[in-house]
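lol forgot to send this yesterday, sorry. struct tokens for the thing we talked abt
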């Protein structure tokens, strides 16, 4: 079973016009032939998701390729 890692992501939200945070849940997946696991954002949680008109959240679009604190290059 692959691992899940929640992380708090911070960044500038164009909808709120200020710095904001969201919760992103990373899902670990293994790629055949690669020793290091790959991660992607599987879920996000934002207090303003119901009212936000943006199709794609810039905080999610600019999220690190792995959960902060994992230490992968």
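and heres what i got for the seq, position by position
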């Amino acid at each position: 079973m692959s691992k899940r890692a929640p992380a708090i992501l911070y960044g500038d939200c164009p909808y709120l016009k200020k710095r904001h945070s969201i919760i992103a849940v990373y899902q670990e997946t293994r790629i055949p032939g690669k020793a290091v696991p790959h991660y992607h954002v599987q879920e996000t949680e934002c207090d303003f998701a119901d009212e936000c008109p943006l199709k794609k959240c810039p905080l999610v679009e600019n999220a690190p390729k792995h959960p902060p604190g994992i230490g992968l290059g």
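The helical segments are 58-61. anyway ping me if u want another try
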